[in-house]
Automatic annotation (TrEMBL), chain A:
Pfam families with a match to the protein in the record: Peptidase_S8
Family the UniProt entry places it in: Belongs to the peptidase S8 family.
Keyword Signal applies: yes
Protein name: S8 family serine peptidase
Length: 887, 159
């Protein structure tokens, strides 16, 4: 490493002579700044490399380069099909007003990128500004000739800092222009992150999901509503209609011309369905799945209901084959969709046989049904203008949607009964007095009208009368679950924060707290709420919670399904799991649940037992259900972790523990044959403790294209059962092209300065070479002429990151950041004459660690905004000319 | 649904002798649909002149809008303008058309919309919404369309 120090010094000296017109160079020139003399031959005490996260790129004209004289790009910057890029735009140039020449921000009103797109792929933008509000930023997708296809603008005043565009299905695959432009604002600069994943939103990928049995030669086809009734007659492609399943779906048979030897098999049926999907007017075509008794995973939409795998529901359902039968759940909400044929077809069978009189509590001033005011009809009237998503129907579907009707998806407690109660009227708004009366109506009498109350509503202050009503019903044995709220705030929100109510925050498909979810010490547990901006499970679809709904068709509202996000979607997952438990343990009450929750028996635990984000953790249905079984007679296998993610970048192999849950006295035999695709090798350890080791076969993978499958583990205990383990994988090949921008590597004091900032004691800067940054620090032994790269003996954190907006702070949101040893879990390094750390490895990127089950040791950092670079004249060291390369 | 509000014009200081006085058969704008779940996460305007462009806007996740009503609009005669409030944390948000006017041939089309939001402390659904109104306007070559009522400043679009 000594030779490198000499090169650093030479490069630095040259840049000073040339007037610092530098910027990045292919050689990855490195400078420590702060001295115009060659580095003294002191010993390097600390050195290493910083790798860059997969697919990371950086805007080629950011503020830290522009202030040094680099010119904004005039040609679009080329990007790969999958990338995450950080950038900088500013409507004009200006000083930050500190009388310092070192923190100016330059003009760069627009960045253009040339990006390969497939139809349906989506690109997302997230912006960050120093000021509340901040400038509007527009994200536009254009053809190469400049024709605009789609654009979206952020709304910082209303706290919307994101935008996204997708390539319409009508466009050809190829290169397109992506333009990020900033509006005028004072002060104007803004940092941003752009991201895109190749293959996202490609429906074809979904064919690789679990191999459900289906009837050869038949399909369930949905037609676009404008298409009228083209399915009423047979044709060469669609075959014959057997019957209409509802307003939009038809059961059809394959035409004989597509059969081989006059018979339909699985393959030619799937080929035919694939052809059907490409026909104009066909919205969807799915196989006619064979339904086995109470098998929720056979519902057509189940493969899109990622939120159930996340909470280990398939394992739980094996323990509760009745799906919560005998338990009543009251959903206090906007009511339930009903048309001339009855309640929503995916929920109808679960609605209580006789709805007690008075189930509509919406007072006249909030009501939108006829006649306005309280009555006995809990149907959701919708809204003639279409300003309605049938929120209560969506929530109810998550709790109880039917599992055996070949329609839509399934509910968590598909065997439970639903009591729909209306407390929210026009636009999803209601009054606290209506809610209080409804809670008492459900749970104060004897017998109670429902065992569990779900409240996917909020926004109320603390109201003593509401607390009294909740106290009454909880004392009467009713369990109350509520949505924590979507304000991304720690302020207690009611009714979730009320005593006796289980408060549920929302996680995305990666198990991390959703960006919108409330948090704080009043959160009890977490459940999937979705996040439209993420596709954490790589299924090509946004991570929304899929459930029943209705939409406006030619003849009025029709039953439908839709994806939504919010803590409203998280709460019913918990209410459903509690219903599964209650069916096994009829005396289950709030007190028991609180005690089990605190004992870690209901959730995937979090470090320390409880966190502000996830409470006691994300609900684990299998654990929760098992807790409710006094003497389990069934035995099941559960995978830990429940899903596997492999890549050439992270890990090529993973061992999954197969836990035996339930009756431990039953013999359990695992079928050693586990089918897997060519890119995945599977090894089973079939003796206790059971485990499966999966290994990526890199030769069988296409580069940079995510793949997925689901392993089926067949086993026999008291019965023959199947365990499904989803696997996603990717062969990453962009190591050398990765670039996260000029990096500053700092040793920062562990105590903040007078401004409360963690400031650098020593720093070096460099650009990436072959996707890697290399750094080294010398010991400052007190001799004269010490440079910025010389570190005095002491205790420090070792951190690195970019300063794209040239404000002298690295690691702000939208800038790259790395910490030693692991980002999010920095540790103190003591530097003295004996220090000899020469092989430090770190990883940098734009993602920030989240507190989740996968990263249990990460702690919150309230108020942390980044690390302060070592500034001119600070700590008595000679000044560089500008912030940038010379520092 | 659409009114020409003289009061609005006076209040906005836009009244002039050039104001086009459209009759009931020549509406400058009509509200086609409203939705609380348009799937467009930022506030702004999207102008639709072709079925392809319409399909793009009907292909978004987290969307629930009355597709049928939009497809019934004859894009040869009327263009569609999506006026979006952007993503909001709860239910209770909506946007609707209030008025439309133009001050003369070749002048900007000015639309006023009313955005509604739940009062603080109101009980609402805890679902992320993205309210919008879709307005049909005559298929003219509007030099500019200005929409007031969404933000402090007008939203401006040059079709």
């Amino acid at each position: 490493m000594v030779y490198r120090a000499n090169r650093i010094a030479t490069a630095l000296a040259l840049s000073l002579i040339l007037g610092a017109c530098g910027g990045s160079s292919p050689s990855g020139e490195s400078g420590d700044g702060g001295s115009d003399v060659l580095l003294p031959p002191a010993r390097i005490v600390l050195a290493g490399t910083i790798g860059v996260e997969a697919n990371t790129r950086v805007d080629a004209d950011t503020a830290d380069g522009l202030v040094l004289g680099e010119l904004p790009l005039t040609e679009p910057q080329l990007l790969p099909a999958s990338f995450i890029l950080a950038g900088y735009v500013s409507f004009r140039d200006e000083s930050r007003g500190t009388n310092s020449p070192f923190d100016d921000f330059p003009k760069d009103p627009e960045d253009q990128f040339r990006v390969p797109f497939e139809p349906g792929e989506r690109l997302s933008l997230r912006t960050f500004s120093e000021m509340a509000g901040g400038p509007l930023v527009t994200l536009a997708l254009r053809r190469l000739d400049g024709t605009e296809l789609e654009s979206q603008t952020t709304d910082p005043i209303n706290k919307m800092f994101s935008a996204s565009v997708s390539l319409p299905a009508t466009e050809e695959a190829g290169d397109y222009l992506v333009v990020v432009s900033a509006d005028d604002f004072d002060p104007p600069p803004v940092r941003y992150v752009l991201s895109k994943t190749a293959g996202a939103q490609s429906l074809a990928l979904n064919l690789d999901w679990p191999r459900h049995a289906f009837v050869p030669g038949r399909a369930v086809v949905a037609m676009a509503d404008y298409a009228g009734t083209p399915m009423s007659a047979s044709n060469q492609i669609a075959g014959n209609v057997i019957r209409a399943l509802d307003h939009q779906h038809w059961l059809v048979t394959m035409p004989a011309s597509r059969m081989s030897r006059q018979s339909a098999n699985e393959q030619n049926t799937l080929d035919w369905i694939d052809t059907l999907r490409q026909q104009p007017g066909v919205v969807s075509a799915t196989p006619d799945y064979i339904v086995s008794a109470q098998s929720p995973m056979n519902e057509p939409l189940y493969p899109k209901q990622w939120h159930y795998d996340l909470i280990n529901l398939p394992a739980a359902w094996q323990l509760v084959p009745g799906g919560g039968a005998g338990v009543k759940v009251a959903v206090l909400d906007t009511g339930l969709f009903r048309d001339g044929l009855g309640w929503h077809p995916d929920i109808a069978a679960n609605v209580v046989t006789l709805i007690p009189a008075g189930a509509d509590f919406v007072s006249a001033e909030f009501d939108n049904d006829v006649p306005p005011g309280r009555d006995g009809d809990p149907r959701d009237p919708g809204n003639a203008a279409g300003n309605n998503v049938f929120h209560g129907t969506h929530v109810a579907g998550t709790v109880v949607a039917n599992a055996t009707n070949q329609l839509g998806g399934t509910g968590v407690a598909f065997g439970a009964e639903l009591l729909p109660v209306r407390v929210l009227g026009e636009g999803g708004i209601g009054s606290s007095t209506d809610l209080i009366d409804a809670i008492r109506w459900v749970g104060s009498g004897t017998p109670v009208k429902a065992d569990i109350i779900n409240l996917s509503l909020g926004g109320l202050p603390e109201i003593p009368a509401l607390q009294n009503a909740i106290d009454e019903v909880v004392a009467n044995g009713v369990i109350v679950v509520a949505a924590a709220g979507n304000q991304a705030s720690s302020s207690p929100a009611y009714p979730a924060a009320a005593e006796g109510v289980f408060s549920v925050s929302a996680v995305d498909a990666g198990g991390s707290l959703a960006g919108y979810s409330n948090f704080g010490p009043w959160i009890d547990l977490a459940a999937p709420g979705g996040d439209v901006r993420r596709d954490a499970n790589l299924d090509g679809l946004a991570d929304l919670v899929i459930s029943s709904s209705a939409s406006l068709g030619p003849d009025g509202f029709e039953p439908d399904y839709t994806g939504l996000q919010g803590t409203s979607m998280a709460a019913p997952h918990v209410a459903g799991v509690f219903a599964l438990m209650k069916s096994l343990k009829p005396d289950l009450n709030t007190g028991t649940l609180v005690s089990w929750l605190a004992g870690g028996q209901l959730t995937t635990p979090v470090p320390g037992g409880r966190s502000g984000a996830l409470g006691y953790g994300t609900i684990d249905s299998a654990k929760a259900v098992l807790a409710a079984i006094d003497n389990p007679s069934v035995t099941i296998l559960s995978a830990s972790p429940a899903a596997i993610s492999l890549s050439s970048e992270t890990r090529l192999s993973q061992t999954v523990e197969l836990q035996v849950l339930g009756d431990q006295t039953n013999n359990l035999v695992i079928n050693p044959t586990i089918a897997s695709p060519a890119w995945l090798d599977v090894t089973l350890s079939a003796v206790r403790p059971f485990s499966i080791t999966v290994t990526l076969n890199e030769q069988a993978l296409e580069e940079d294209v995510p793949v997925r499958t689901s392993l089926e583990v067949n086993y026999t205990t008291d019965s023959t059962r199947v365990l499904h383990i989803p696997v996603v994988a990717e062969l990453v090949t962009d190591e050398n092209a990765r670039n996260a921008g000029r990096h500053f590597v700092l040793l920062v004091y562990t105590e903040p300065n007078e401004q409360g900032q963690l400031e650098a004691a020593a720093q070096v800067s460099m650009t990436a070479v072959n996707g890697t940054y290399q750094f080294g620090f010398r010991l400052n032994d007190g001799t004269q002429g010490a440079s910025f790269a010389d570190v005095p003996p002491g205790d420090y954190y070792l951190v690195a990151g970019s300063d794209l907006d040239n404000d002298g702070i690295i690691c702000q949101s939208g800038e790259a950041c790395a910490e030693y040893p692991v980002t999010g879990m920095r540790e103190v390094i003591t530097v003295d004459e004996n220090t000899d750390l020469k092989d430090i490895r770190m990883a940098t990127g734009y993602f920030r660690p989240t507190i989740s089950t996968a990263t249990p040791d990460v702690l919150p950092r309230p108020g942390f905004t980044g690390y302060k670079l070592k500034m001119p004249h600070s700590h008595g060291v000679a000044a560089p000319k500008k912030i940038g390369v010379e520092r | 649904m659409v009114t020409l509000l003289t009061g609005y014009l006076l209040a906005a200081g836009c009244a002039s002798s050039d104001v086009i006085e459209t009759g009931p058969d020549e509406l400058l704008a009509r509200q086609v649909i409203q939705s609380a779940h348009c799937g467009l996460s930022g506030p702004g305007l999207a102008y639709v002149q072709t079925p392809e462009r319409l399909q793009q806007l009907l292909d978004l996740p987290a969307q629930n809008i009355a597709v049928q009503q939009l497809r019934q609009v004859d894009l040869e005669k009327e263009h569609l303008l999506f006026i979006t409030l952007g993503e909001k944390p709860t239910g209770g948000y909506s946007v609707s058309l209030v008025s439309a006017n133009a001050e003369g041939t070749g002048s900007p089309l000015r639309l006023a919309v009313a955005a509604r939001s739940p009062a603080p402390g109101t009980m609402t659904t805890q679902v992320i919404t993205s309210a919008c109104v879709v307005v049909a306007v005559p298929a003219h070559d509007w030099p500019e369309i200005r929409v007031s009522g969404i933000r402090d400043k007008d939203l401006v679009l040059a079709p």
